[in-house]
Amino acid sequence: MQRPRAAANAIGESINATALLDGIKVVEMGQALAGPFVGTICADLCACVIKIESPDGDAARGWGPPHIIGDASVFHYVNRGKAAVVLGLTTPEDRARLDALLAGADVFVHNMRPGSAGKLGVDAESLCARFPRLIHGDIAVFGHAGPLKDRPGYELALQAYGGILSVTGTPEAGPMRAGPSIMDFGTGMWKALAVIAPLYRRTVTGKGCRTETSLLETALSWMGLHLANFATDGVLPVPMGAVHPLVAPYGAYQASDGPVIIATGSDRLFQRLAKALGQDAWLADPRFADNTSRVGHRA
Fold first, then answer.
1. Secondary-structure percent of the chain, ordered helix, strand, coil, rounded to 5
2. Other residues' Cβ atoms within 10 Å of the Cβ of residue 212
3. What angle do CA 99, 101, 102 make, to 5 degrees?
4. Does the annotation mark 184 as catalytic?
5. How far, in Å, CA of 57 to CA of 36, rounded?
6. Residue 255 reports pLDDT greater than 70
7. What is the distance between the alpha carbons of residues 132 and 218, in angstroms, rounded to a whole number?
8. How confident is the model at residue 174 (pLDDT cuts 50, 70, 90)?
9. How far is it, in rounded angstroms, from Cα 287 to Cα 243?
10. Counting Cβ atoms within 10 Å, is residue 113 exposed (0-12), middle (13-18) or buried (19+)?
11. Considering only CA atoms, which of 170, 191, 257 is closest in space to residue 35?
12. Rounded distance, CA 33 to CA 181, Å?
């Protein structure tokens, strides 16, 4: 995976964008995708990331084919740039090894099943009391409070529960899973932000903190546009394929040799589109005078 290119600051000095977290140590007890992706982001920014696996191993090692050197390629993708240690935390020896790693760590992150962190003594209350400078990152599925907090879950279930499947797909084909694992990777991105931002706060206070993130909150955030619309007009959103519910023309349109994507995000772009397609009459048609009119006459 290619690292980010060097950036330039306001006065033109070159900055190595890959070294932003150089000197930061992250201990990650991640599994599957969401937790490991946090460590991957930190590793890409040159943090020292140590992945802790149980003796049973990360289930994502078997998520294939394809495989590379015996493990699924997706496992390599979300665990690149890390060191790896196998620890059985129910044994005193391995627990002591983990504590030694945490004593020198800046960040600890996990996405274990609800209740597992407490049983192993790696919950926020336990670790932050012992390591006050530690930034603790906990990824849950349905959040950390409320009646669903103890439920486990995976990507597809959260795409459904969070409403994403209700607007992804077409009326004819029905709901479709979003191709990328947007719940896992999206939550990993939120969590990376949530553990990196407190590093600055710690320079002021000298103290770490706990951070909480969940797949459900990611789903609700991604559905914010549709939620705002429903709260305004009371109309339930529906799957529209590649069409944008608020902009027209915007979508995949069938041509003689396959679909073509048209995305006109402004009235100015629509005017340029009409001219490019030789449809000057559209510009004089009141049905297409502005975006609101075009949305109303999309069909």
1. 40, 20, 40
2. 16
3. 65
4. yes
5. 13
6. yes
7. 28
8. confident
9. 18
10. middle
11. 191
12. 9
CA-wise closest residue to 50 among 21, 84, 98: 84
* Positive/negative CA dihedral, 201, 206, 207, 208: positive
- Helices 182-205, 215-222: axis angle to 10 degrees equals 100
Tokens of 214: 């969940």
Phi, psi for 6 (deg, rounded to 5): -65, 140
pLDDT, tens digit (0-9, with 9 covering 90-100), for 101-126: 999 999 999 999 988 999 999 999 99
Q: What is the pLDDT of residue 4?
A: 34
Residue 119 main-chain phi, psi, to 5 deg: -65, -30
Q: What is the Cα–Cα distance from 82 to 88, expressed in whole angstroms? A: 19
When the pLDDT of each residue in the chain is averaged and rounded to a whole number, the result is 91
Looking at this protein, which amino acid is placed at residue 42? Answer: C
pTM of the model: 0.85
User: 213: closest CA among 35, 3, 19, 30?
Assistant: 35
If pLDDT is split at 50, 70 and 90, which confidence band does 11 have?
Answer: very low
Q: Which of 167, 171, 194 is nearest to 182 (CA)?
A: 167
Tell me the C-alpha distance between 181 and 155, whole Å: 7
Active-site pick, 184, 257, 267, 285: 184
Cα–Cα dist 151/114, whole Å: 7
